[in-house]
């Protein structure tokens, strides 16, 4: 997970400490987002906005992982256009599995170092 997302998550969790009633709502939102991703066979990192660091991280992915990502995105667009969903037996996976997070962090660190120098 990139530093911006970690900071946002940390501040969100800190805000939840003062509001214990919001924690179930946050868990519900995360679970609902996961179910929506599973309907189309996507992973959370498939829908990240492609900023400079993300584009650089995508260029460093192995060819097999890039092909898998493109296949998931194409399948999601196809299912959406046909107003269909992925069959239930294909939805048994973790939509929050990370395949890009470490590469995004490395790209952001490099970008920060360039800005500092």
Structure report:
67% of the residues lie in helices and 0% in strands. The chain has 117 residues and is an all-alpha fold. The longest helix is centred in the first third of the chain and has 19 residues, at 22-40. The protein is flat. The mean pLDDT is 87.
Main attributes of the structure:
117 residues; 67% helix; flat
Helix/sheet category: mainly alpha
How many E strands?
A: 0
Provide the gyration radius in Å: 17 Å
Spatial separation of the terminal alpha carbons: 25 Å
Largest sheet: none
Put simply, the count of helices is 5
What is the percent of helical residues?
A: 55-70%
Q: What series of H and E elements makes up the topology?
A: HHHHH
Brief write-up:
With 117 residues, this protein is mostly helical.
Sequence-ordered SSE layout with sheet pairings:
Blueprint (H helix, E strand, L loop, with lengths): L2 H15 L4 H19 L11 H9 L2 H19 L19 H16 L1
Helix pairs in contact: 3-5
